[in-house]
Amino acid sequence: MDAVADNPHTEVSPELVVPTLNAIAAVLETKRAEIEAVERKTFKYGYLPRQQLDVYYPPSSSGKAPVLFFFYGGGFVSGERIFPAPWSLIYAGLGSFYAKRGFLTVIPDYRLVPEVSYPEPAEDVGDAVLWVVRNSGIVAAAGSVEPDVSALFLLGHSAGAVHLATLLLEPWLRASIAKPLLPRIRGLVLSGGAYAYEPGKGYEFFIHYYGTVQAASKNEPLALLKAAPAEYVRSLPDILLVQAERDTVWANSSGDIFKDALSARLGEEVPRLICKGHNHVSVNPALGSGEGEEWAEDVVLWMKERL
């Protein structure tokens, strides 16, 4: 995917997003039949229009399949589990990629700014996971494979990583949603998130979500991590951090800060995987294309080691 590798831009902008997604979409289009051959069903996990999720079923399974949830990014203001044409296979490719490797894959939508603000999207993230756990029979009856809701993996990218970290670390969400789920979660994969607010590094979107600089500094994942009880932090499932080789300034900086803080709180080094050749936008949309998937194969191995 030379168009991605040759793009000189690294910060999120139309000059990065549009050429990147157009290049990936063109390759995915050549794989349409292969991607759409993977069974997909849509469910509502709430009453609002954006509280829906797609489930991608593994093509074959000798028993229950572990469940992978993917929470996309979009700067808190955008993102779709299924984009309109010509990008309609983006994330469908991801769903088929992980399903083919044995994971029943769930991609939820969640509410966006300005309709909502912190922490409501993180509530949606938790509600989507809870819905699948509580309605595994419905999910199984609609498709070809039964989900193993005792073996969950959660993957969040960019804003999705922030929402996932918030779900696990914000006191009310931690107690009401995350803590009951922890025994079921085998691993967390946090990719390219804005975990720490740093003025002057392109964090304007942070304020749109949190409301004020003060609120952002108080409720960012880094602050929530530092405030969480030590016993709770040590009880978290295994965590893998993921970063694009050509990620944004803010993702690289906050990723370093969060990795150091998390490692210090856990008392051990948290592993980080670098996605070679990728920019912030290309990492997940490329899955299903047959190109740039090496990092995700490593994630699959990491998850299977925890089954």
From TrEMBL:
Residue ranges that the Swiss-Prot or TrEMBL entry lists as coiled coil: none
Domain BD-FAE-like stretches: 53-167
Keywords: Hydrolase
SUPFAM superfamilies named among the record's database cross-references: alpha/beta-Hydrolases
Gene3D superfamilies: alpha/beta hydrolase
GO molecular function annotations of the record: hydrolase activity
Protein name as it appears in the record: BD-FAE-like domain-containing protein
